[in-house]
Amino acid sequence: MVKLAEWRGKEIFRKYGVPLPKGHVVRSPSEVAAALQSAGIPLPCVVKAQVLAGGRGKGGAVRFASTVAEAEAATQAILGLEFKGEVVREVLLEEKLPIAKELYVSLTLDRSRRLPLAMASAQGGVEVETVDESAIVRVHVDPFPGLLGYQKRQLIAALGVTGPVARSVDSLLDLLWKIFEEEDAELVEINPLAVVGDRVVALDAKVIIEDDASFRHPEFADVKDDRTPLEEIAREKEIAFVQLDGNIGVIANGAGLTMATLDVLAEFGGKPGVFLDLGGTDDPKKVTEAFLLMAQAKPKAVFLNIFGGVTRCDTVATGLVEAMRQVPPDAKFPLVARIRGNNEAEGVAILRAAGVTSLSDLKESVQAVVAAAGGPA
Ligand code: GDP
Ligand code: MN
Q1: Pick the CATH number of 22-95 from 3.30.1490.20, 3.30.420.40, 3.30.540.10, 3.30.1330.60
Q2: What is the whole-number distance in angstroms between the Cα of residue 96 and the centre of ligand 1?
């Protein structure tokens, strides 16, 4: 997921002609005066922390300033702040528009219906999760013809706007669809979409670019995403590796088995701290690399749950034993293995010879690893 900060989202909006307040991003209070001037931002202005988390309005990360000095002070106060775990490094200065009404519009992917989904609500400004379901209109969009006239009218009706404002929303929806499609977005959200005079203006922008399309967007290559440093290394090595906040490492093969393993672990009071999906690989070198990465995450115990279908249990076991040898003594952890399937007996023998607890029952092995990590939470 390439989540774009508001100012980057708005840069995309600007490129497509979405109406926006005048704005400029700064990284230090010393840039404020020049930024206000060069972008022609009148006072009073809005000073907004550029973090990915929502709820900035309520959390004091959106401020107003009526003089240049106040804008500098607000920038100074916001930069370096930690907002929901994220340090503010960039601040967006914007003209403060007189808002008549705050609306909500978005385009996202409804994965269960396998269709783009347009949403609109007259209750904008607040987080959409807190808006009553009945106040949100949802329209699924066939990607081939795109957002159609009658669908736009449904959305506009939900927003409760008429006349010139409605026409302004109508062209905005066309642009939103164009952005969603051409920029490979999985989310384009405007909250609030403000009614200002007889038109609408995007006061906020939340854009997420689909990961699988990121190769088509070199312009976002430098966007910091929420991967941890270890996840970053894993990504380079093409290893499916995700860090969570528990203390048990999970190694499994295939997304289905990996997810199911996490669930069973949680069921027995275990807290997964990192998981690794070996996929179809039984390349001992790759298994070793993945395992060493797991060791760096410092799990209390590791559960290996492998089904040998295409993958052979003995090759995975060989890779694993080799990897265990390479783990530095201070990073060692207890390992509980459950390997089933192809060449199972050979695999189990290799693991047992290396001192690994190797069980065949899922419940027993999960309980063993939870105990090894210090008992159920
Ligand atoms: P979020 O809370 O993180 O989603 O941040 P938003 O960008 O949505 O801003 C939160 C709130 O600040 C908005 O709902 C508006 O009420 C207010 N706000 C943001 N920009 C402006 C502006 O240009 N003019 C005025 N009057 N209010 C603004
Ligand atoms: Mn918002």
Answers
A1: 3.30.1490.20
A2: 9
* Annotated catalytic residue, options 90, 104, 183, 344: 104
Average pLDDT, integer, range 295-302: 91
**Looking at domain 229-372, which of 3.50.50.60, 3.40.50.261, 2.40.30.60, 3.50.30.20 is its CATH number?**
3.40.50.261
Work out the end-to-end distance of the chain between its first and last CA atoms, rounded to an integer number of angstroms: 31
The reply to whether 104 belongs to the active site is yes
Q: For residue 52, what are its two tokens?
A: 């990915």
Closest residue by Cα to residue 372 from 268, 296, 300, 320: 300
pLDDT attached to residue 284: 74
pLDDT beyond 80 at 18 = yes
Asked if residues 118 and 106 have their Cβ atoms less than 8 Å apart, the reply is yes
Of 88, 286, 97, nearest to 194 (Cα)?
A: 97
Q: What is the pLDDT of residues 199-211, one digit of tens each?
A: 999 999 999 999 8
Average the pLDDT over 344-359 and give the result: 92
Q: Model confidence over 164-177: pLDDT tens digits?
A: 999 999 999 999 99
Among 353, 368, 244, which Cα is nearest to 305's?
368
70 against 227, higher pLDDT: 70
Ligand 2 (single-atom ion) residues, CB below 5 Å: 191, 204
Report the chain's C-alpha Rg in angstroms.
26
- Reported pTM: 0.72
Would the CB of 269 count as within 6 Å of ligand 1?
no
CA distance 338 to 313: 10
Q: Which uninterrupted H or E stretch holds 92?
A: strand 91-95
Mean pLDDT value across residues 332-361: 92
